[in-house]
Amino acid sequence: xxxxxxxxxxxxxQSDKSFEDAIKNGISRANKTLQGVTGAWVKSMKVMVEDGKxxxxxxxxxVTFVLKG
Length: 69
Prior knowledge:
By secondary structure, this protein is α+β, with helices and mostly antiparallel strands. The chain has a single domain, classed as Flavin-binding protein dodecin (Dodecin subunit-like, 2-Layer Sandwich). Helices cover 22% and strands 55% of the residues. The protein has one helix and three strands; from the N terminus they run E-H-E-E. The chain has one helix spanning 19-33; strands at residues 6-15, 37-50, 53-66. It has a three-stranded antiparallel β-sheet with strand order 1-3-2, with helices on one face. A hairpin with a 2-residue loop joins strand 2 and strand 3. The model has no long low-confidence stretch (mean pLDDT 95).
């Protein structure tokens, strides 16, 4: 059986549209930098408010990727 070691990094991402879009942005960006991304979970969600209106969505993600070698 083959074994592997994974690492987890925490990152923050935001969007003007939605939490889902913020998550997609974070995963997309992580995938450009990290090799072997296998999953992620949302640690926190926050809305940015200005003049009583939601102006942005921010998420903190924990992204898992498998180390090579």
